[in-house]
Amino acid sequence: MINKKLNLSPKIFKRDIEMKATRDGFGEGLVEAGRNNEKVVGLSADLSDSVRVSLFKKEFPERYIEVGVAEQALVTIASGMAAYGKIPFAASYAIFSPGRNWEQIRTTIAFNNVPVKIVGGHAGITVGPDGATHQALEDIALMRVLPRMVVLSLSDAVESKKAVLAAMDNGKPTYLRLSRTDSPVFTTEKTPFEIGKAEIYWESRDPKVAIIATGPLLYEALNAARKLSKSKINSLVINCHTIKPMDEQAIIKAAKIAGAIVTVEDHQMTGGLGSAIAEVLAKNFPVPMEFVGVNDQYGESGNPRELIKKFGLTSEDIISASKRVIRRKNN
Amino acid sequence: MKPLPAEELKEKAAEIRQEIIKMLVLAGSGHSAGPLGLADIFAALFFNILNHDPENPHWEDRDRFFLSCGHVAPAYYATLALAGYFPMSYLKTLRRLDSPLQGHPERMKLSMIESSSGPLGLGLAQAAGYAYAARMDEARFRIFCLTSDAEHQEGNHWEAVMFAGKNKLNNLTSFIDRNNIQISGDTEEIMPLEPLRDKYESFRWNVIEINGHDFDQIISAVGSARRESDKPTVIIAKTVPGRGVSSMEGKYEWHGKAPSESEAKQALKELKYKK
């Protein structure tokens, strides 16, 4: 059942749950960040509307910097601004930033240790009709391999807003992963959010599997847990919004309690959340594990729902993976 | 620091060149040609042009210096040591394990530098971002950047040129070490850069061309950059790679090579300061 302590939305499994993209939560969060701290500046590479920096631009035109279609400049200029003392949020599509400008991020932001916030919008296959060229499925891997980089992958609009404010204050190079598509808003202003802390969203007595999800697919995981409970399979669902630094204690504890793990992400299975969890478990407490994610493929055009179905990222796929991993555990 | 007159700068540049050779021979690897060619510009910057205080390296009102072409680190390190930023003994540790003097400059190991560098084409964008941020706060210091000519083959660099021109960053001055060589040969054969002046002018920059070994020209170019009211300035400084060591002068083969002991001995003889 839903963890009542987290004050999740009472409409969480209702038909009229609010739908809103994580990029919209980011846009609102950036305006609030701008109001809270005058050092906050917003940069974008000709995508201010679609990554929702436009709200910030409207309220703080003197603190918005347009760099044109130039993602390498986007992050290197942001690096210089951060070295000066600003808190830059540099936003583009994840496929271009950190996709195109990875070495610039490595050298001038992570290696230099300056607190630039790299905002990768339109991440994942749920970008939809734009197709494979615009669906970043590798960005978590690119960012989590960098020493000093904090990696956040946000699950709904409210959480995204909180993440902006937390990133503003953390003083570190930070990546924020966002989606384009409207998705259920199942957390509330009162739901706790702390960078580096994974929360149990669905708990049940004597769980047979722990499902660890990141990004909007967390909602698919919660639906899977609900359906599994109807067939008497108890599970845990963990929101792992911080891929780095990983909340190792929470992951090890879940593996000990459930003895089997399923990871869920709108990203390649290689190098993302699943890999990060596998590293923690292999070192500390190995248990059978199944990966729900994109399996070494590029995406394609389609609507987001069709795509998550075709690429095996739905609650039904999570249920199958859960049953598989439980069988492996019992064998 | 009190600005030194041209005659004393000459002496400083000779010391920088000698230290470069001594460092490189001990390290056994590194870049020779670029650092020797830039010794005069480094001397002019750190002993005359920049408003800075080695006793107080993080002084808020200091001028900022971004080295974009990090491979000329030996010249940078020798200059910083001679200016008093760290003990001269550090120079013997270049490229060694646990040394603050990494093969390419690292900000986390050398806190007085503004940025790490080495991968080319990234320095001007950082300097431009810094200059933009400084102007937002009406800061009065100036931002300097030193680039190599061959790093103008990087796309990121031209993105920054566009940005600085568009935003009229007149608090930004960039030097180009126009020595015409790069690791595999002549810049104009590998990927022609000319006409550099026209390129910068078309991107709305103020362009000044100088002899990069003439202190009066270096200092007066920066003076006119300071007077420029609505454009960033680029100073195209023609230099001789390997300057001061006859066997190295103008030879691209010395781009990424350190001298042997006997070559170093000969070089140091030639580099002795003569009044």
UniProtKB/TrEMBL annotation, chain A:
Q: Which cofactor does it need?
A: thiamine diphosphate
Q: Name the Gene3D superfamilies for this protein.
A: 3.40.50.920, 3.40.50.970
Q: Does the keyword Signal apply?
A: no
Per its record, what are the GO molecular function terms? transferase activity
For this UniProt record, the keywords arranged alphabetically read as follows: Thiamine pyrophosphate, Transferase
Question: Where in the numbering of this chain does the Transketolase-like pyrimidine-binding domain appear?
Answer: 20-185
Q: Tell me the PROSITE patterns matching this sequence.
A: TRANSKETOLASE_2
**Family, similarity comment:** Belongs to the transketolase family.
Q: What is this protein called?
A: Transketolase, central region
Query: What lineage is this protein's organism placed in?
Result: Bacteria, Candidatus Woeseibacteriota
Automatic annotation (TrEMBL), chain B:
**Residue stretches in coiled coil:** none
Per the UniProt record, one Pfam family is Transketolase_N
List residues of the Transketolase N-terminal domain.
Answer: 15-272
Tell me the InterPro entries matching this sequence: THDP-binding (IPR029061), Transketolase_N (IPR005474)
Work out whether the entry's keyword set contains Lipid biosynthesis: no
CDD domains per UniProt: TPP_TK
Q: Which cofactor does it need?
A: thiamine diphosphate
Provide the alphabetized UniProt keywords.
Answer: Thiamine pyrophosphate
This protein's record includes keyword Nucleotide-binding = no
User: Which Gene3D superfamilies does the entry mention?
Assistant: 3.40.50.970
Q: Do you know which SUPFAM superfamilies this protein is assigned to?
A: Thiamin diphosphate-binding fold (THDP-binding)
Family, per the entry?
Belongs to the transketolase family.
Under PANTHER family, the record lists: TRANSKETOLASE N-TERMINAL SECTION-RELATED
What name has this protein been given in UniProt?
A: Transketolase N-terminal domain-containing protein
